[in-house]
């Protein structure tokens, strides 16, 4: 129903939505509200906090799988027990799945990049970086080629199916490829790298103290190095802005 509100200068009619309109618009309003909350959320802080728990969970699962192998009564023997038990097959498959997950995360970490175009940089002055290349302005780059594994496969496909070189009248720009892994995957790599998974694979009742200590030391060292390099980049940026 419309409501009337006015001042000394006149009357202004305000139309309030009906109950049916509120019910009909409620799903879309909730979606918009949820999208605003997602955009306002600090995902870097959330990813750093959640990666710690995910890494602890994966390490605990790997240790439990190794303990399960200890309690598997039938050890594989080519003469006495030429066939693996069903429990051993299940445990072996789970261990290989976790190792493959760790390897996939490590590959993503090393190949995760993002391209930046240096439009203000002179073409005759090559920037001092090994991750720089010249690219035609307006050259269509698919979306899948901006992330791993597309950023690795796309240049190879270009070299195979397209003619090398640039058009005579084309405009070019320097493009720098910056290493850009996510915080979640980077922390997960520190706490659950392939080296640590292999160490846990050889865990048994006699060497568990030494191997667990080695896995923890590797994780702490990787995390400290990552933190130091992140601080170095921030400090260099502060110094550069002050100069």
Describe this structure in words.
Pfam families: DUF2418. It comes from Funneliformis geosporum. This is 19102_t:CDS:1. It is a multi-pass membrane protein. There is one protein chain. This protein is α+β, with helices and mostly antiparallel strands and 243 residues long. The chain folds into 3 domains: 2-38, no CATH class; 53-111 and 183-242, no CATH class; 113-179, no CATH class. Helix content is 58%, strand content 13%. The chain has helices at 19-40, 43-70, 86-111, 150-161, 183-191, 194-201, 208-242, and strands at 2-7, 10-15, 113-118, 132-136, 172-179. The strands form 2 sheets. A 3-stranded antiparallel sheet has the order 3-5-4, with no helix packed on it. A two-stranded antiparallel ribbon has the order 1-2. The radius of gyration is 28 Å and the shape is extended. The termini are far apart.
Instruction: Report the portion of residues in β strands.
Output: 5-15%
H and E string:
EEHHHEEHEHHH
Q: Number of helix segments?
A: 7
What is the rounded distance between the termini? Answer: 63 Å
How much is the radius of gyration in Å?
Answer: 28 Å
Class of secondary structure makeup: alpha+beta
Mean pLDDT, rounded to whole units? 76
Number of domains: 3
Q: Extract low-pLDDT stretches.
A: none
Strand order of the largest sheet: 3-5-4
Main beta sheet, described? 3 strands, antiparallel
Task: Work out the helicity level.
Answer: 55-70%
* Mass-distribution shape: extended
Total count of strands = 5
Transmembrane segments: 49-67, 87-111, 208-226
Protein name: 19102_t:CDS:1
Organism: Funneliformis geosporum
Main location: membrane
């Amino acid at each position: 129903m419309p409501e009337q509100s006015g001042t000394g200068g006149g009357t202004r009619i305000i139309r309030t939505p009906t109950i049916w309109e509120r019910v009909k618009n409620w799903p879309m309003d909730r979606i918009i509200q949820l999208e605003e909350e997602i955009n306002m959320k600090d995902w870097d802080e959330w990813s750093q906090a959640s990666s710690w728990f995910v890494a602890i969970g994966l390490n605990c699962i790997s240790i439990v799988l190794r303990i399960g192998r200890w309690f598997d009564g039938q050890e594989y023997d080519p003469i006495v027990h030429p066939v693996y038990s069903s429990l051993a097959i299940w445990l072996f498959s789970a261990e290989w799945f976790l190792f493959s997950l760790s390897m996939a995360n490590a590959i993503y970490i090393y190949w995760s990049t993002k391209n930046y175009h240096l439009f203000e940089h002179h073409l005759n002055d090559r920037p001092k970086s090994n991750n720089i290349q010249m690219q035609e302005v307006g050259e269509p780059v698919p979306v899948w080629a901006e992330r791993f594994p597309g950023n690795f496969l796309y240049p190879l496909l270009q070299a195979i199916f397209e003619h090398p070189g640039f058009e005579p009248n084309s405009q070019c720009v320097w493009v720098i490829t910056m290493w850009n892994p996510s915080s979640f995957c980077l922390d997960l790599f520190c706490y659950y790298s392939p080296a640590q998974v292999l160490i846990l694979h050889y865990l048994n009742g006699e060497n568990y103290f030494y191997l667990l200590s080695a896995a923890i030391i590797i994780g702490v060292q990787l995390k400290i190095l990552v933190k130091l390099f992140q601080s170095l980049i921030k400090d260099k940026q502060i110094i550069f802005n002050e100069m």
